[in-house]
Amino acid sequence: MSDTKWTESIDLAAGPKYRALAEHIEDAISTGLLTEGAKLPPVRQLAWSLGITPGTVARAYALLTESGRLEAVVGRGTFVATRRPALPENDVWTHPVEQADGPINLFSPRLPDMGQVAAIRAALHAVADGPVEELLAYPNREAFEPARRAAVDWLSDATLGSVGHKDIVFCHGGQNAVSLVMQAVLHDPKPTVLVEALSYPGFRRAAEMLRVDVADVAMDDEGLVPEDIERVARQTGARLLCTSAEMHNPTGLHTPRARREAIVAACRRVGVQILEDDCYRTAPARAPGYRALWPEGAWYVASISKTISPALRIGFAVAPEGQHATLRRAAEYGFFGIARPLAELARIILSDPQTRRTAARVRARLGDYLRVAVNTLGGHDLTWREDVPFLWLRLPRGWRAAEFTLAAERAGIRLRSAEEFTLREGRAPHAVRISINGQIPLEQFEAAMTRLRNLLDDPPEEIAV
Questions:
Q1: Model pLDDT for residues 125-183, shown as the tens digit of each residue
Q2: Positive or negative: CA dihedral 158, 416, 108, 242
Q3: Entry pTM
Q4: How far is CA 79 from CA 12, 26, 29, 56, 227, in A?
Q5: Beta 168-171 vs 315-318: how paired, if at all?
Q6: N or C: which end of the chain has fewer CB within 10 A?
C-alpha cells in the first residue's frame, strides 16, 4: 500500500467530484507523491475516507486507467502505471511554425503547441500498438462506446442536459457534424434553414451542398431576435435554425440565458429545431445550451479543432433526447462512421486528464496574443473576450471592409471581411475578423497589429454617402 499523504487536502468542491479526484491523483503522480508501481487504496476504503460514494472513486480510477496513468490488475488492485517520459523542450514551440518572412495569416485561429503534439504522437503510437482488430475491422457501435463515453466526459462543461454515450456520433470535424445534423433533420421537398444575419459560412456551405435554401434572421447585441425568427420561419417554412450562442462567430457576442429561452419559445411556436454550433468555445459554458433548455428539439455540434488541434478532424454531433437513432442512421448511411483508429485516438486523447490542462495552456498562450492585439488596437471599435481566439473590428469612417482587407494584404496580413459572414443578398457591416495566430512569434504578431493600427489611423478619403 502506498503512503497516504497524497490523500491529504483533496478539494472535491469544484466541478464533478470524480474528475476533481482524478486530477488530484494525476497531480500526486506528477509531483512524485505517488510513484511508479504504487498501489492505490481499494475503492471502498478511499470512498469512506473521503466521504464520497464508491462509484465516484471507481469512475476516477477508470478515467485514469483509460488514459494510461493507472493500471488495474485483476485480483491485486490498482497501481500507478509506468510514467510517460518528460516532454522534450522542443516538443513545445519555441520557434515559429510559419516562415517569418511570409504573409501573416490571421484568416483563421492557429493554435500554439503547448504539449499537444507530443501527446498526439504518443496516442498514435498507442493506436498502432493496439489490438489487430482496430486496424482490420469495420467501425461498429459497440467498438466506439469507450470513445463516446470519453466524449460525454469531455463535453460535460457545456451544460447540455442529460447526455448519454448513445446520443453522440463522432464526425470528421465540426463542419461534417453540421452537415450530418442537416441530413438528419431536413426532409421537406424544398427545405430551408435559418442562420444569423452574420454567421459562420459553413452553415451556408453545408446547406448549398444539400440543395437547401438559407434565410437570415436579424440580430442585436444579445444575438438572434426571437420575433424575427418567427417572422422568417413563417415566410419560408424553415425547419432548422443554425446558431452559435455561447461564442458567436464572427462577432464574439454571447447570448445570455434569458434571450436563449426566448429563442427556444419562438422556435417551439413555429416548429423550428435548433442546431447549436459550439466549436469556438474554449472555456466552460456561461449559460445552459439549447439542448438543456429544449431537450427534445435542440442539436449540438462541437470539435477539438480550436482547443487541441484541427489536424485530427475530430468532431461530435449530439442528438436531442429520443433522436439518437436518427443521427446514427444519418452517419452510418452517409460514411459508415469515422475510422476505428481515429475513434481510438479520440478515446485516448479525450480521456487523458492532461488534455484539459493542455487546452488551458493553449487558451492562456492565445490570451497573450489577444492582449497584445487589444492594447494595440484598443483605440478602435473592438469586440473581444479573453477566451475567444479572434477579435471583431468595426472599421472607422473612410474604410470599407473589402478595401481594408486588400490594404491589409498589401501590408502582408490576411484578414476576413464581414462580407464572408453574410448571405449573398445580405448587407455586411464595415468590419473585419482578426484571428489570433499563435504559431508566429509574439513580436511578429505585435508588429502586424501595429501595421493594422496605422491603416486604421490613416483611412482613404471619406466616401460620400
A1: 888 888 887 788 888 878 889 999 999 999 998 999 999 999 999 999 999 999 999 99
A2: positive
A3: 0.80
A4: 22, 13, 11, 18, 58
A5: antiparallel
A6: C
